[in-house]
Design goal:
It is built from 9 helices and no strands. Mean pLDDT is about 90; it is low at about 1-10. By secondary structure, it is mainly α.
């Protein structure tokens, strides 16, 4: 049986691997980031790495799960700062877009990189997008909820537009105007 100190050391190594993998996968891409690069960045041995993540696919799935938890927590908290989705959603996205490390949506990027080659990742990506839609729907009135899918498409489009180099402020203003049209009129 492991002593608490040994358990903590193992947990710290796993967390270090996952944290470094998350940064590398997001900034450089999953396919461009080999296991050796993660091992070096985390400062662990190959034995330690493979004890926690028997294969790169295991690490990819852990990365997506961790990214989902962190992103959704921040997204929900940011949306909750304002009662009005027309203000909250653009403000939330602009804050993310202006992050110096912004490189688009990790889930869209993963879907583009991996396609259907890792079905478990595809399932996690769908779950993430469904939960994002749910978080948006929770901020809508019952009459507005029917427009959730349209709003999600606007958000996804805004994410990609900023990722390909469009000005975040311009894209967010376009999103805001679209939300006004969708949510304040009978459209």
């Amino acid at each position: 049986m492991l002593t608490p100190l040994e358990f903590d050391a193992n947990a710290a190594a796993r967390e270090r691997i996952l944290t470094r993998a998350q940064a590398l996968f997001y900034q450089q891409g999953i396919r461009a980031t080999g296991v050796d690069k993660v091992i070096a960045a985390a400062g662990v041995t190959k034995v330690t790495f493979y004890r926690h993540f028997p294969a790169k696919n295991t690490l990819i799935l852990a990365f997506l799960q961790l990214r989902h938890q962190r992103w959704m927590s921040a997204f929900r908290a940011s949306l909750a700062r304002d009662n009005n989705l027309i203000d909250a959603l653009p403000s939330t996205l602009l804050s993310w877009f202006n992050d110096e490390d912004y490189r688009g949506c990790a889930f869209i990027n993963t879907a583009a990189e991996l396609g259907d080659s890792l079905p478990e990742a595809s399932a996690l990506i769908r779950e993430h997008k469904q939960e994002m839609a749910q978080a948006i729907a929770e901020r809508l009135t019952p009459e507005q909820k029917i427009k959730t899918a349209q709003i999600v498409l606007l958000v996804e489009g805004a994410i990609v537009q900023v990722q390909i180099g469009e000005k975040a402020e311009v894209i967010v203003e376009i999103l805001r105007q679209a939300l006004v049209q969708l949510l304040k009129t009978g459209a």
